[in-house]
Amino acid sequence: MDNFYEVSEDTIKTFFEIFNKKSFPVSIGFQFIGNEKQKELIKVTKISDPYAFLVKKEILVSINDDLMSVFDEESITILMEQEIDKININIETGKIKLVKTDLNTFSSIVNKYGVEKVARANKVEELYQEQKKDAKTDEEFIA
Fold it and tell me: Which of 49, 73, 101, 128 is the 20 to 30 Å CA partner of 119?
């Protein structure tokens, strides 16, 4: 428990400055917690329904304040925005879920080919896997 602490107001303010530039259809409750042993600057996780009911918050934002001084302002913005972009809301149900990143690769590949080409290649691969899964599902219903 020694590694947890209250997140600074400046850090929370920075988070909301970035978050408020996004467009979300419903209001989201955030619970902030500092974690000095966390290896990444920021991590968002969904709070399970029973605990969300108790604390009246849906998303836990875990931040390592010590790392804030290591990164420049642009890197902080990128890292926070990356985590915020994981938050996905079903407009019809209002249900919140966290999604995986849509680009996961090595920096050397991005440096060699550029972000656009790598993203396109990953998207094609992802679509192929989805179509393959859909085809398999369709076959099961045909029988």
Answer: 73
| Structure token digits, residue 26 | 């419903």
CA distances (Å), origin 126, targets 33, 58, 119, 130, 132: 34, 29, 10, 6, 10
Based on the fold, state whether residues 113 and 88 are members of the same structural domain: no
Do 89 and 118 belong to one domain?
no
What pLDDT is stored for residue 33 in this prediction?
A: 97
The confidence score (pLDDT) of residue 138 equals: 55
> What's the average pLDDT block by block, 10 residues per block, for the chain (143 residues)?
91 95 88 94 95 95 91 90 91 87 77 83 70 66 47
pLDDT of residue 55: 94
3 and 35, same domain (yes or no): yes
- Please indicate, yes or no, whether residues 2 and 58 belong to a single structural domain of this protein: yes
Neighbours of 77 (CB within 10 A): 15
**Spatial separation of the C-alpha atoms in residues 18 and 9, rounded to whole Å:** 14
Q: Is residue 76 domain-shared with residue 107, that is, in the same domain? A: no
Look up the domain containing 24 and give its range. Answer: 1-99
